[in-house]
Design brief:
The protein is of the alpha+beta class and about 280 residues long. The chain has two domains: about 1-120, Diaminopimelate Epimerase, Chain A, domain 1; about 125-260, Diaminopimelate Epimerase, Chain A, domain 1. The chain contains four helices and 18 strands. The protein has an 18-stranded mixed beta sheet that branches. The longest helix is centred in the N-terminal third of the chain and has 13 residues, at about 70-85. The two termini are about 15 Å apart. The protein binds the ligand N[C@@H](CCC[C@H](N)C(=O)O)C(=O)O. It catalyses: (2S,6S)-2,6-diaminopimelate = meso-2,6-diaminopimelate. It is found in: Cytoplasm.
Length: about 280
């Protein structure tokens, strides 16, 4: 299996171009993503043919679970598809588990320098996130834990679920402690990604993300979009903001005209390799 190691702001992926998924892809994802014993990555990503779009992206987290969407991986996929001339156009449509996403590439000297993804409208209705409870949006709502802990959360989805908490200082946020507790909270039947957000000003936030099926990552594209939408819904920021993540910055714009969220950021190629399965 030939692969390309790529990342979006340190959120790293093993990317494979294939005709079909290999047998037992979840187990392969666990092996490939494992540090020291495998390549080491946050996810295993496949570029596959598509009947209704230019290509299909499928992403498996490091724990083998499949995610519906990934805002960082889709930029890597678009860059690789363009630079290998699989799709020789700067605009392409990529089918994902969260629907077809239009992507636009900025190219300089034949190389992709930036990528804008139309993430579509955020899904705000509770049952569609999915999250348990009465119908309506989940904005600054108390979430109760078995041991009596209560956290105020804003929840939404971009095809994959996100739970956002506002904190005074993101560097000191208890990501390792609360991340897994929220990921596995019974209110989220498909588990959830968790964003810890510090509001810096009306056009700037700092975010750390505990990703479902991975743990804390250096960046999360859909998580940055979720954090931005939650900040807007809570009245903390404007609709166009910069999201500072440990791995770097993403620009997010929740456009009034079409209600879609646009994610802009880089994608980086690191090396090519071949996976030689020995067991
Ligand atoms: N890093 C991603 C999200 C990857 C999937 C996530 N762990 C999930 O299970 O939903 C991003 O950049 O959006």
């Amino acid at each position: 299996m030939h692969f390309v190691k790529m990342h979006g702001l340190g959120n790293d992926f093993v990317v494979v171009m294939a005709r079909t998924l290999p047998p037992d892809t979840p187990e392969l994802a666990r092996k490939v993503c494992r540090p020291h014993f495998g390549v080491g990555a946050d996810g295993l990503v496949f570029i596959l043919p598509s009947e209704e779009a230019d290509i299909t992206m499928r992403i498996f987290n490091a724990d083998g679970s499949e995610a519906e969407m990934c805002g960082n991986a889709i930029r890597c996929v678009a860059k690789l598809a363009y630079e290998t001339r699989l799709i020789p156009y700067q605009r392409m449509r990529i089918a994902t588990g969260a629907g077809i996403k239009p992507v636009e590439l900025t190219v300089k000297d034949g190389k992709v320098v930036s990528c804008t993804v139309d993430m579509g409208e955020p899904i705000l209705e509770r049952s569609a996130i999915p999250m348990q409870g009465p119908p309506g949006k989940v904005v600054n709502e108390p979430l109760i834990f078995e041991d009596g802990l209560v956290l105020r959360v804003t929840a939404l989805s971009f095809g994959n679920p996100h739970c956002v908490l506002f904190v005074p200082a993101v560097e000191e946020a208890p990501v390792e402690e609360l991340g897994p507790r929220l990921e596995h909270h019974p209110a989220f039947p498909h588990r959830t990604n968790v964003e810890f957000v510090e509001v810096v000003g009306p056009s700037e936030i700092r975010v750390r993300v505990w990703e479902r099926g991975v743990g804390e990552t250096l960046a999360c594209g859909s998580g940055a979009c979720a954090a931005a939408v939650a900040s807007i819904l809570n009245g903390y920021t404007a609709r166009e903001i910069v999201v500072h993540l440990p791995g770097g910055d993403l620009r997010i714009h929740w456009k009034e005209e079409d209600g879609h969220v646009y994610l802009q950021g880089p994608a980086t190629t690191v090396f090519k390799g071949e996976w030689l399965e020995e067991e």
